[in-house]
Amino acid sequence: MINFPLRLVELQEVDSTNSYAKELIKKGEIFEGTLITARRQTFGRGRLSRTWHSKEGESLTMSVVLETPPLPAVTLLCGIAVNRALSHFTESNCFSLKWPNDVLSENKKVAGILVERYLDFTIIGIGVNVNNRVFPEEIENKATSLRLIFGKDFDTRQLSVLIGKSLEQVFTEYNYSFCEKAKRDYTALCINSGKEVRFGEDFEKAGIVTGISEDGSLIVRSEKEEHLISTGEVFISGIY
Ligand code: BTN
Predict the structure, then answer these.
(1) From the CB of 115, is ligand 1 less than 6 Å away?
(2) Cis peptide leading into 5, omega within 30 of 0?
(3) pLDDT tens across 33-53, in order?
(4) Which atom of ligand 1 lies nearest, measured to the CA of 47?
(5) Out of 2.40.160, 2.30.30, 1.10.10, 1.20.1560, which CATH number does the structure's domain 192-236 have?
């Protein structure tokens, strides 16, 4: 196991810590175990080509670079790791996961994870709403922060290192695979389990979540058939 992080790159401002990590990889200036953080991220990227909102001095925006084998379920393992780090950091077990890896508390999103492959590297980009007091109107109903949940401020630098260590521990514990134990642990945290979800391009299909497959897809049973959802978004009634 590596002693995480091997290198800490703390930036004042960057477009996206994930894009910055890619640049370093391209130039051969990076190695496994590098943790990049930015106080201000001007073009944060989310899953499904969305933008990611963050606020200078309040949000944590970070990327971890690991040299892992390509693994379809890697994003789910990252979800377990961030969930664990937040639980440990806040000494609370109020966190859950919404498939594939949104970290929620009281059905609102606290953290998002964008995993990208580049050459032999896996870039794990993580955004955590730490000391945010308010959110833009378009996300205020579905976002929350540690500040809003616990009523106090937290140290973002300390949290970034803890998340890095947690990622390393989770990958080592599950031996870089979505093994039976990983699947069990993920399912226990996942709020989709057993719930009715809507999915498809316009969320026109519906079914009950019956499990998670080997590759991390959501298994959904509808009236007529079983669906394997490997990408995109699913909607849980009353949540998002
Ligand atoms: C999501 O839930 O859509 C994923 C959000 C990931 C945001 C983080 S912030 C740090 C890193 N750099 C980025 O541009 N995105 C990720």
Answers:
(1) no
(2) yes
(3) 999 999 999 999 999 999 999
(4) 3
(5) 2.30.30
